[in-house]
Amino acid sequence: MSTNALYADLSIYYDLMCTDIDYSAQSHCIQRLHQIFGNQKKQHLDLACGTGAHIRYFLNQAYISTGLDLHPAMLAQAQVRCPEADFILQDMSDFNIGTHFDLITCFLYSLHYNQGIEKLRTCFDSIYNALNPGGIFCFNWVDKYKINNKHFVKHHLTYENALFTFCSRWYYSGQGEMQALRLSIEKAHPDHTYLWQDEHPMVAMGIQELNDFLQPHFEVHLFEHDYDKIVPWDQVSGNAIFVCIKS
Ligand SMILES: C[S@@+](CC[C@H](N)C(=O)[O-])C[C@H]1O[C@@H](n2cnc3c(N)ncnc32)[C@H](O)[C@@H]1O
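That is the input. Now the predicted structure with S-adenosylmethionine docked in place:
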């Protein structure tokens, strides 16, 4: 079991793992939320940007985008996909870019990659400092109290004469401030099969707790985790989209 191989040695498979994700719908939804709650300006920062799939959709809508990520192999792919964007190798837990943004995003639960609540706090401080007045920060979150350790998502596809099976699941022990994302990649050829397994430690918190945690610095609005329609969070679902306005 390795940690974060997916973003280093296995990064060539990252986009294959994400073929089921509707990056266009996610980007469009956040752009609509930005139109509603934001300052109508276009300087954009995507934290934990990965291979730049969301940034591509922001550039297409005339945003001036910067991507930040911890792993060079992910940023190298992002630079190829989005040659017009700037990319920065930094840890989002304590970043300083020296410029300000109107919209900061963090997709695919990546904010959980902060390694504990203290790191999450310094990440929010960095975000607050990097936002222009009236700027907003949008991200999605899973509630540690609602994680079902038995639930998983799996999909298969054929690529370069191999059958790939990708599987991911959340795991929370029921105690403490850390949860895990468990991932596996199986690559099956007719005569041999490779299996890689990753376990990513991530910060854990309930949605309501996180809402309270953010309140001193931000005006917070919570929405259902549905990128096709904007609906207020029902206070029950285990996933939510956070919109945080710099107050
Ligand atoms: C699940 S991927 C999401 C990538 C992209 N946002 C997407 O939606 O496809 C998580 C990303 O977080 C990055 N990452 C992990 N820890 C990080 C940290 N402390 N600071 C910045 N990026 C980090 C990884 O390198 C990886 O690219």
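Residues 23-37 form the longest helix (15 residues).
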